[in-house]
Design goal:
Length: about 280
């Protein structure tokens, strides 16, 4: 409690602490982004074997803790020094110490982005319940955005706890009254669910996945139904611009889906920091 009091009395120290914490969490989020989809696929494989009446395959332990992080090229197990956020990648010049494999720059960028967003969250909300919620919300969105970008999955193991956490924080009206949060969760889910079915009935194709419904429902649970029009419009406009640009300049095929989750996540971050002005601009304040 004394540490919280010190952080509350020193905004600069609180933001700096959040930056360091965010860098560490960003390093862990890189593990989440890489492993959660593989864990889902392993679970589906086991379920398929069970439904088919086959003996489930014996698979080695694979979760967020085991096995230890290793180079995907040569299998070199990373030591503690090689797991220091930003610093390890910089000192190793972006290469594996064992085989020289080029480590994607996205790893330190996720760490840096998570650190900066964490510092921004505490700078705006302080060392308070709202600040703690902003951190959890931001970290979840970072993980979801990159998982969807890589695999077009939005795992229930992240979207559903995010929704319930939003309702939990708003039991005390941290961001919006509880009634507004409940309506926001329902409206967020049902709005994209309706678009999905209208599009499917009209074209016979699926325009988005169920994870998008749950993510928008989670954003509604945090910031209420008033934030949803701005979130939907901003994510749709940015998604359309990026999609058209990819088709024009990168020859992205029209029949290859473009993940919508990263744009929803980006709009969710905007709702966190500028929710009231955005709602007022859209006439929802």
């Amino acid at each position: 409690m004394q540490a919280l009091s010190v952080l509350a009395d020193s905004p600069a120290l609180a933001a700096a602490t959040a930056l360091v914490l965010g860098l560490l969490v960003g390093s862990f989020l890189n593990v989440v982004i890489h492993r959660v989809p593989k864990m889902m696929e392993r679970e589906w494989e086991l379920q398929a074997a069970e439904l088919a009446g086959r003996e489930p395959p014996e698979l080695p332990a694979f979760n967020l803790v085991r096995p230890r992080s290793r180079c995907p090229s040569c299998g070199h197990t990373l030591g503690a020094f090689e797991n220091i956020p930003l610093l390890s990648w910089t000192l190793q010049r972006g290469r594996c110490r064992a085989c020289g494999w080029s480590i994607p720059a996205r790893y330190p960028l996720v760490e840096l982005g998570t650190g900066l967003l964490s510092a921004l969250a505490i700078a705006q909300f302080g060392a308070t319940a709202a600040g703690a919620g902003a951190l959890l919300f931001t970290w979840a969105l970072v993980a979801l955005a990159f998982i969807d970008l890589d695999t077009q999955y939005l795992p229930d193991d992240i979207t559903l706890p995010l929704l319930w956490l939003g309702l939990l924080f708003n039991l005390w009206g941290v961001y919006v009254p509880l009634s507004t949060a409940v309506v926001g969760a329902m409206a967020g889910y049902l709005s994209l669910w309706s678009v999905y079915w209208l599009f499917k009935l009209a074209t016979g194709k699926e325009g988005m996945g169920y994870g998008d419904f749950k993510l928008l429902g989670a954003i509604g649970a945090w910031f209420g139904w008033q934030a949803l029009p701005a979130v939907i419009v901003l994510s749709s406009v940015v998604g359309a611009v990026v999609g058209i640009s990819m088709m024009l300049f990168r020859r992205h095929r029209r029949d290859v889906p473009i993940p919508f989750g990263p744009y929803l996540a980006g709009a969710g971050v905007l709702a966190l920091y500028a929710g009231k002005p955005l709602s007022a601009w859209f006439g929802m304040a």
